[in-house]
């Protein structure tokens, strides 16, 4: 029996429910062939690794660790290169070092990487100079180029997504276990353009402190294995259900279903309908699950999500990723946290300070202000402090490249700079020095908490 058949065998399956934001594939036979091929491919991650991440996230939910989740808004096939992947990893490793050392907390590191190729969109079409075409939905679906041919959804792209994810994950595993992520490399992560930025200089001082602390421990005869490699997990939005379900496998150890396209998958703000296919699909798999919660989320919706996704109240199974907007977080978040906590749910709460703070600059660029991002994180910490709950982490869109997509930061980017290196295929990302700035500020908030 194929996994799809098995999922069907449960009776009530995602295929019987409305699935928002799915591509309008023109050729269904071609899609079926692709799905059959994907079903025969080897897993990208192991079920045991997903379990390990669930345990780590359990520590986050219990208030014993902090989650750093970040990466591109939309990964692109032509950015699967050693340089791009290394730069992104460097950024996350640097942020992780800052949060661990300055925030004095274990940091669980999860990339929006090796699978983040699909995008939900506000509109299904885009018009430029009087020409209207289907909107770009990520490299897994269609091309970014504004031509009729590129914008036609092509299921062959789902296979390219699998191969791009495999190549990325292979390099990530090599970088994180093959010496590059050794804490003694803490200075090497601070090379190139970022080194001279204010946050890069601050980081260099922190790296010297880490060096001293490690030399001290070495002199005392302590050199733990944990300093040599980094535990790093992959995650993406489980948007295109044909792909996710084709990569769902039965774990031979337990008989449970796992989506082996990534360690953690999340359901987005636009696809978290209680009677929808995404929720049904996620409820069937054992991976750790994230759900984005925007400002319109009601406590009852949050409670139903808990009931459906985490009926056993298992810490680490469910992460709520709140993305309210800086102007709403202090009003909207408290009631959700209060009611969910009062219900006995054991979720991890993390903040996505990006998606509620997007605006269009006069130049037409979609952008975000660093100060708004920071303010939403502050609001998130304030709310958790006032309720005595744990601010469990941050979820950010970032890149390791020196792009100019978000305004502000210590090495300030102005609205007039946006055109210089605006490279995102969808939403604006923090560049490396803005990401480091954020890590230092979050570490301070965490310590103060
Ligand atoms: O990343 C999130 C969404 O895909 C993105 O914000 C949608 O952007 P749009 O409003 O331009 O469609
Ligand atoms: C689409 C995303 O966010 P949201 O669902 O919160 O809008 C995203 O994180 O890529």
Automatic annotation (TrEMBL):
Mn(2+) binds at residues 73, 355, 397, 427. Signal peptide: none annotated. GO terms for biological process: amino acid biosynthetic process; aromatic amino acid family biosynthetic process; chorismate biosynthetic process. Pathway: Metabolic intermediate biosynthesis; chorismate biosynthesis; chorismate from D-erythrose 4-phosphate and phosphoenolpyruvate: step 1/7. It is an enzyme of class 2 (transferase). Its EC number is 2.5.1.54. InterPro entries: Aldolase_TIM, DAHP_synth_2. Keywords: Amino-acid biosynthesis, Aromatic amino acid biosynthesis, Cadmium, Cobalt, Manganese, Transferase. GO terms for molecular function: 3-deoxy-7-phosphoheptulonate synthase activity. Phosphoenolpyruvate binds at residues 112, 269-270, 292, 323. Gene3D superfamilies: Aldolase class I. Binds 1 divalent cation per subunit. The enzyme is active with manganese, cobalt or cadmium ions. It catalyses: D-erythrose 4-phosphate + phosphoenolpyruvate + H2O = 7-phospho-2-dehydro-3-deoxy-D-arabino-heptonate + phosphate. Belongs to the class-II DAHP synthase family. This is Phospho-2-dehydro-3-deoxyheptonate aldolase.
């Amino acid at each position: 029996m194929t996994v799809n058949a098995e999922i069907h065998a449960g009776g009530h399956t995602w295929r019987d429910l409305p699935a928002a934001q799915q591509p309008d594939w023109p050729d269904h036979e071609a899609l079926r062939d692709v799905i059959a091929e994907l079903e025969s491919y080897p897993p990208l991650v192991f079920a045991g690794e997903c379990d390990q991440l669930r345990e780590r996230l359990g520590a986050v939910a219990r208030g014993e660790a902090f989650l750093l989740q970040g990466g591109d808004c939309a990964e692109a096939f032509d950015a699967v290169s050693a340089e791009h992947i290394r730069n992104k990893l460097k950024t996350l490793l640097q942020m992780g070092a800052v949060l661990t050392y300055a925030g004095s907390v274990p940091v669980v590191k999860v990339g929006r990487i090796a699978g983040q190729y699909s995008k939900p969109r506000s509109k299904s079409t885009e018009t430029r100079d009087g020409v209207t075409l289907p909107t770009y939905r990520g490299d897994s679906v269609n091309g970014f180029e504004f031509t009729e041919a590129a914008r036609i959804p092509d299921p062959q792209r789902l296979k390219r997504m699998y191969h791009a994810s495999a190549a990325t994950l292979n390099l990530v595993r090599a970088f994180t276990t093959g010496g590059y992520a050794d804490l003694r490399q803490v200075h090497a992560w601070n090379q190139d353009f970022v080194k001279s930025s204010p946050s890069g200089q601050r980081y260099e001082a922190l790296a010297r402190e880490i060096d001293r602390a490690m030399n001290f421990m070495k002199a005392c005869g302590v050199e733990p294995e944990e300093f040599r490699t980094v535990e790093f997990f992959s995650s993406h939005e489980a948007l295109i259900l044909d792909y996710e379900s084709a990569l769902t496998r039965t774990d031979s150890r337990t008989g449970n279903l796992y989506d082996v396209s990534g360690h953690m998958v999340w359901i987005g703000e636009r696809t978290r309908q209680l009677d929808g296919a995404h929720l049904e699909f996620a409820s069937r798999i054992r991976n750790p699950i994230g759900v984005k919660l925007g400002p319109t989320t009601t406590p009852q919706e949050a409670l139903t999500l808990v009931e459906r996704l985490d009926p056993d109240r298992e810490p680490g199974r469910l992460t709520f990723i709140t993305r309210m907007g800086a102007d709403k977080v202090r009003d909207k978040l408290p009631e959700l946290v209060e009611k969910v906590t009062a219900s006995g749910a054991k979720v991890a709460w993390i903040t996505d300070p990006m998606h509620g703070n997007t605006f269009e600059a006069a130049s037409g660029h979609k952008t975000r202000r660093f100060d708004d991002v920071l303010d939403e994180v502050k609001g998130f910490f304030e709310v958790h402090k006032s309720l005595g709950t744990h601010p469990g982490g941050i979820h950010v869109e970032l890149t390791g490249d020196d792009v100019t997509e978000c305004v502000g930061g210590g090495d300030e980017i102005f609205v007039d700079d946006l055109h210089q290196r605006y490279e995102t295929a969808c939403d604006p990302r923090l560049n490396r020095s803005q990401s480091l700035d954020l890590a230092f500020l979050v570490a301070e908030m965490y310590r103060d908490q």
